[in-house]
Amino acid sequence: MLVGILSILAAAGLTLVDQLIKLWATVELLPVGSKPFIPHVLEFYYLLNDGMSFSMLSGKRTLLVIVTGVMLAVLAGMLLLRKMPRLERAAWILVVGGGVGNLIDRIRTGVVVDYLNCLFINFPVFNFADVCICVGVGLLVLSLLLDMRREQKAKQQKGSAPTDGTA
Hints:
- The protein is elongated.
- Helix content is 63%, strand content 12%.
- Helix 1 (2-29) packs antiparallel against helix 2, helix 2 runs antiparallel to helix 3 (86-109) and helix 3 (86-109) packs antiparallel against helix 4 (128-159).
- The protein has one domain.
- The mean pLDDT is 92.
- By secondary structure, the protein is mainly alpha-helical.
- Strands 1-2-3 form a 3-stranded antiparallel β-sheet.
- Strand 1 and strand 2 (42-49) form a beta hairpin.
- The chain has helices at 2-29, 61-81, 86-109, 128-159; strands at residues 34-38, 42-49, 112-118.
- The protein has 4 helices and 3 strands; from the N terminus they run αββααβα.
């Protein structure tokens, strides 16, 4: 249970970082629109997004809030109560922390504050919460692949175990 509580606190910490950066972006970028960060690579660019990635479900605030809220409640409960490998737990902490950060924006203002713009590729403007969610999903995939590999090795070892000579 302690691990679960610490996991929720870690996710809350990520949410706090997200909200503080969004506050900074609103104060610093709203008046000017954008500021260079790494020339020709990355800039801070203030944008309000009423959808999710790539503006999917744009204008569907109620649906996004309800579905996201239910999913995050289930995931938070899972973090609190379920035993899981460290890598999987870290992944879910990132997903929950980022998801709650964006959910707070949607509930409070109806839009999500985005502020990171990649200049070297055509990619949507995003934020810290989005990074947490994407890294978390990547870690979940890695965790799944590692589990599959472990299971495969265990099956191979079981299949190649010496027999006692009886048939």
